[in-house]
Design a protein that fits this description.
The structure is a homodimer. The two termini of chain A are 20 Å apart. Chain A is of the alpha/beta class. The first copy, chain A, folds into 2 domains: 2-107 and 299-319, ornithine cyclodeaminase, domain 1; 117-294, NAD(P)-binding Rossmann-like Domain (Rossmann fold), CATH 3.40.50. Chain A is built from 11 helices and 18 strands. In chain A, helix 5 (164-174) links the parallel strand 9 and strand 10 (180-183). The mean pLDDT of chain A is 93. The longest helix of chain A has 19 residues, at 106-124. In chain A, helix 1 packs across helix 2 (19-35), helix 2 (19-35) packs across helix 4 and helix 3 (106-124) crosses helix 10. In chain A, the strands form 3 sheets. In chain A, strands 1, 2, 3, 4, 5, 6, 7 and 18 form an 8-stranded mixed beta sheet that branches. An 8-stranded parallel beta sheet of chain A has the order 10-9-8-11-13-17-15-16. Chains A and B meet through helix 1, strand 4, strand 5, strand 6 and strand 7 of A and helix 1, strand 4, strand 5, strand 6 and strand 7 of B.
Chain lengths: 350, 350
């Protein structure tokens, strides 16, 4: 049987374990997979574009497990109360090709994005960061705040969004989180004196959410909103002066902040820093950028983590037939055999 | 909510409707989709090869619906009582990107393969065929026999397999089908005088299941076992002298019987015959071949057909979140709100 984890199952699972514990565990899995990055089969996404959006399939395999994420992006969905981006995923056994797990991934992607952000910041930020500025308080905001609290022991989060309702929502959801939450009136107010800045804004254009005058020495910028062609958040001069780290360079060149830069602009893949083959931050004063667009290996890690958790949430689904004789597929078309009375009694008493 | 149809659901659905009715309905959907073939976005499969097998993703979209099939091929699986090929699929709404249906497709692929075979034969075979020879009585055999009975009103089926147990299984499963079933001792005995010959053998090599001496004028050959590089069933002289019809030429050149032929060997895509823009059979005496390898549009049709059926089988799964505020994904991490007493009473009484 194949395991199924729906959205309510995943919500219940995270609540039972505790979201911060979940994020820490997830980051551990992502880090482990990033450290053996070269053993992964990495393909381009398979995208189907239409007038209203895109449907993408994102596979990744390390030769033992195979993961596939289905993800859509439909900006107009919010007009009818639907989500712009939803996702689900499948984890399979490479040796047999059998799916092991089908899971919702709308929530799981939000969790893994936050875990990757915090993992990158723990690797790249200056020591002992205290304050996170969060520019853009949409669906990702609270996950970011809690991942930075759990992995980097951030004390304070400063929030800004151009939409006051989104700002209210994030402040409300983070009340009681143990973080000092500051509602800011501008990007500048949020960023001033912050150790780490996450940009997670929604505008589908090349905008300058951050400008060079706002950037202080030693800051770590976690740029996650610029994640598709034509969508960036950082002024190019910020990027030009910083050390830039990416997930998978060929993909980030097209989708990330560095789409603004020349094709030979130097970047370092994060996995190399984690594996010890590349240098991360070089000085306390340099500005580091994690130019994150999301990558299939992170989804692989997230599905692997959920599968390994000791849990009661979820249930089995019969996605595949179980046959005594693999050549007798047709037997599934025949009426189920009546269970003999003796066997039935055994089943009831066992 | 997303609909889920498991293997037992699909079995129950087919039994309730009747397998022949199901095959006829499915063929109608496939024919309709083949007739507007040019409106489909057709991609290459996205394959992940490993030592033991392959996992493939097969997407297709007509601009309104999007279908994706996950299918594995692992020949060694039978050693541990598992199937060589299993599959499941997803049907989604292109406008929103939301998945509508997740379905098992191991059974459904067997059904659609048989429906396509019979549809092609109804289009290409000489008039009033009476007898089907089935060479290879593995997992596909009974589906073939019943599809040809339902769509072409075949009276007699002649069965041959090198594995006597597989032959017994097919004879047993087809007893009571209304077909005259003849167990044959050789390929030649099965093929002699048959109007249509289906080859569905398993050997992963270039073998000659059929040789030119066995072929009679006017026969229609339905070659479905030769479906991957290095695996063919027909002697090349048979192919050279016949009119050959395929699903999607670029794929069949690599996977089908015509991988034995020069790259410019003429073939006709079946959809053109169904759409009336190409000629099928030209005379009562010519030999026609449907060189079938399976194509994503057929899986699209199968999922669309199952979705449209009036049925009680299957159940809803919460693969995607439902949110009042699409920016408040985090609300799913919070404990469920207790239902106020008055609302609870209303829910109970409604």
């Amino acid at each position: 049987m194949t395991q199924f984890i729906g959205t309510s199952d995943l919500g219940a699972l995270v609540r039972r374990i505790g979201i911060e514990n979940f994020l820490v565990g997830l980051a551990t899995y992502i880090e482990a997979d990033f450290r053996h990055w070269e053993s992964f089969e990495k393909s381009a996404r398979l995208a189907s574009h239409s007038r209203d959006g895109v449907i993408e399939l994102m596979p990744a395999s390390d030769g033992q497990l195979y993961a596939m994420k289905y993800v859509n992006g439909h900006p107009g969905n919010t007009r009818e109360g639907k989500l712009t981006v939803t996702a689900f995923g499948v984890l399979a056994d490479v040796r047999t090709g059998y799916p092991l797990l089908v899971s919702e991934m709308t929530l799981l992607t939000a969790l893994r994005t936050a875990a990757v952000s915090a993992l990158a910041a723990r690797t790249l930020a200056a020591q002992h960061p205290h304050t996170l500025a969060l520019i853009g308080t949409g669906a990702q905001a609270e996950f970011q705040a809690l991942a930075f609290k759990a992995l980097l022991h951030i004390h304070e989060v400063r929030l800004f969004d151009t939409d006051p309702e989104a700002l209210d929502k994030a402040c409300r959801n983070l009340a009681g989180s143990g973080l000092a939450v500051r509602r800011c009136a501008s990007v500048a107010e949020a960023v001033r004196g912050a150790d780490i800045v996450t940009t997670a804004t929604a505008t589908k254009a090349r905008v300058h959410v951050l400008t060079p005058d706002l950037i202080e020495p030693g800051m770590h910028l976690n740029a996650i909103g610029g994640d598709c062609p034509g969508k960036t958040e950082l002024h190019p001069d910020i990027v030009a002066r910083a050390s830039v780290f990416v997930e998978f360079e060929p993909q980030t060149r097209i989708e990330g902040e560095i789409q603004q830069m020349p094709p030979d602009f130097p970047v370092t893949e994060l996995w190399r820093v984690l594996a010890g083959t590349a240098t991360g931050r070089r000085s306390a004063s340099e500005v580091t950028i994690f130019d994150s667009v999301g990558f299939a290996v992170e989804d692989f890690s997230a599905l692997r983590f959920v599968r390994d958790l000791d849990r009661s949430e979820g249930h089995d689904i019969d996605l595949l037939p179980e046959l005594d004789d693999p050549k007798d597929l047709f037997s599934l078309m025949l009426p189920p055999m009546p269970v003999p009375a003796i066997a039935r009694e055994e089943m009831l008493s066992s």
